[in-house]
Amino acid sequence: MFESARCIYCFDAPCIKSCPTSIDIPTFIRKIGTGNLRGSARTILKANLLGDSCARVCPVEVLCESTCVFNDSERPPIPIGRLQRYAMQHGFASDLLPKADPTGHSIGLVGGGPASLACAGTLALLGHSPVIYEKDAWPGGLNATGVAPYKLKLEDNLDEVEYIRSLGVEIKTGVEIGVDIAAEDLLGKHKALFLGVGLGADSTLGVHGAEGDDVVGAVQWIRRLKTDPTLAIDGVMHAVIVGGGNTAIDAMRELIGLGVPFVSMVYRRSRDEMSGYDHELSPALQDGVSLVENAAVAEIQRENGKVTGVHIVETDPNGKPTETDLGILPADLVVMAIGQGKLADLVKQFRGVGLTAKGNVVVDDLMVTGNPRIFAGGDAINGGKEVVNAVHDGQVAARSIDELLRRSDHG
Questions:
Q1: Given this model, what pLDDT does residue 230 score?
Q2: Among residues 48, 322, 338, 358, which is most buried (max CB within 10 A)?
Q3: Does domain 2-91 have CATH number 1.10.1060.10?
Q4: Is the dihedral of CA 174, 205, 345, 400 positive or negative?
Q5: pTM for this structure?
Q6: 404, 409, 410, 398: which is closest to 167 by C-alpha?
Q7: Could you tell me which residues are beta bridge partners of residue 300?
Q8: Does domain 215-336 correspond to CATH entry 3.30.1330.60?
């Protein structure tokens, strides 16, 4: 109540402009202060159907909270993320948003991550019948299996998925495009398609010793951490994280939380050049993590098949390995967080959908691909951004699909 009362309800609120989904932040905060928690949650959901998970995983320090006017007067910004989480925890109900009359139109969505969930939920509220096709057993995409559990637990993601399902969204899991159903058959079954396919498997380093169970991709490792109750790291004393992005930091912070005594992070450039957020890295460094900057992995050393160390060398200003030896870091576990591959082969099954040179799906401002009946959003088009960006894309695509279908109804 104290924090909600601090908000001065700015006329031209910069926090709204810095939220990719443009949540009316002053209004939802004001409703918390007046005790109207249902109204607060409704305000959030009207702009962002995944408002609960975004309240947990959004980097508010570099989005909405970074533009709070209190920063200019050297006062703490309003804790928008925590207030949003409070509103969603205590004001949420499944009947907060109205639904339009059924239109009879069916839309297929490939992938069950945040972009598709937001798109499908919006389409359902507009009266359409969306069907999500998800290859995995768990719908939710990276929210389910790729976001570290200290931010978002699997069960919390599944609760949000059930809310989207309750709006009238059908979710089919264990369905792989090109294996269980052809792309052309999907176009035949539905009036329009949305591609929210995300990214592929963890990228790997082509160095000696990288093959083995004790060298894992960060997304794969976080997936096991969230879904495999048999995962044990009792024997791990030294863990090395390779990479400098947010996924690397997530993996690092989970290892610390699990009690691994010695955790090191190897990054090929300087700390200032890391893509990972410093506000998440700093606590880990305070907890004793060792950051090795301007270094690359030259070899992963093994004895009797087990990882024993990571041989590192210095990098040049471009992040390329040199011949300058930096020594060996002890290691029982190596986690590779150097990016994910693209799903170009999957996307190419859909006629007319173009790809950039980097493998991202090409769309216009309305999320339309080169095929006017196919739309796309999320990591598939941006190469890997925040959950809130995926939600934005999905909701924009849903409104574009709705306009397309209503135009077709009128000839």
A1: 83
A2: 48
A3: yes
A4: positive
A5: 0.95
A6: 398
A7: 310
A8: no
